[in-house]
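LOG
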Amino acid sequence: MATNLPHYVASAKPVPQEGRMPWFKSTAQTYAGIMLWFVFWDNVPASGAATAGGVLGHGLAIALLGVVIAALVCHFCCYLAPGLMGMKTGLSLAVVGTSTYGVRGGFIMPGFFMGILQFGWLAVNAYFSAMLVASFAGHDGGSAVHMGIAIAWALLAVFVGLKGIAYVAKVATYLPLIPLVILLVLFAKTFSGIGSFEPSMLGVTADLNVSSLDLMFILIANVVGFFATAGAAGVDIASSNPTKKDVHLGGLVGVAGVTIFTGCLALLIVAGTYGSGMIAGGETPLEPTKLMESIMGTGTGKVFMLLLALAAFPPACFSSFIAAESLKNTLPSVNPFVSCGIGAACAIGLVLSGQAGNAAGVFGFIGASFGPICGAMTADYLLAGKQWPGPRAGFNPAGWISWACGFVVGVWPTLAPRLGIDFAMPCPPVAAIIVGFVLYLVLAKIGMTTKILSMPSAPQ
């Protein structure tokens, strides 16, 4: 009965049909803004930077193929089922997630957990955006100026996020077009050198002891780890879509399409820069932002840095908004300025410690956390005949056990050395998705799910 439901579930209201929007005005646009964020595509060529040449160590073709595979994994394994449940119910992630984790468990995950992880996103955004602004002003990364800008950046983003989506929208109207234009300009300037690129230009020798498959897995792990929370958030984003076609097209264009576009352009720009001889000798940076001055000249390169930083502010506000909404829903008795203030302090701590500068590490942890959530939600959706099953009572064992096991798989690269185990988990974020999916299927089949509770006018 509805009386068995906590207030945040019983009082949930679906997005009305008259309030729905086509895919190109909602889903695709939102995801395109996320995947155009420079911190994403800047780190694609630098994936596996500990290896000479990064993901370009075995050539351009392998890296490009890795981006395409990663983009399809993001669409089909992370976004699609959550997005379809969001469209069919019109409800939020916090409510839809109760079928996988229970009405008590869903309060914690994905609801509260989604909000907490957004501050990790905010820390990465503030760190790298402030680095570009500091570089424009002639200061190095890690300097007092860099840290000061990052702190101000994080605080301002949280303030805008707390003010609501209307304020976030005001700063997000045209700024996401900036990285699109910059990528195209950089590509046009370096295109002629792509055909001449060889991994040896990046210091790669013939005895490279990392296989092409390993490099591809590293790249896929980085991309999927970056996208994992955005995939689960597809419930909220696609709840504004009127049809299944909108959900599919929004993902194919905004998720898979834009990921392929930005990731591949970033790889081609790096390859073209070295292939054309624009940079030679000394260090071999793999991030397009670190090559901009060599490509465009010092003056224009610095302006591009500043513009990319400005364009990164809307994603920072969006992360803060998602965090604020999650904390308001899960901690309604706590003043959001207090809860978000504590989250902002944690984000600033990550910045000051330098941990936010390890984008691959942050993405890996996020992928480990939300990869199994996406996998389990997909299994839940398929088991219910491609519908939302409805809220389940208490803590749903199938959901929590599948998440715990998937999380261990996802964080295995960090966990294994501490346990003294010599086993390398291939592509941990994707492995975490698979474990979450398969284990939820098995556990649900053997009856380890709690009963489904009735919900007033439960949408399907």
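LOG (cont.) second protein
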Amino acid sequence: MARHEIYNDDGSADRENCPRCGDTYLADHGDRQHCGKCGYTEWE
């Protein structure tokens, strides 16, 4: 995914920040969201 695809037209990110790290976005894997920095995972 290109970097520009996660941002809205107003410049805000279309992803959630990691609740542990706070400075990274959660990657969307369809059935879960995952932080690549600390390993935090939210299952849907």
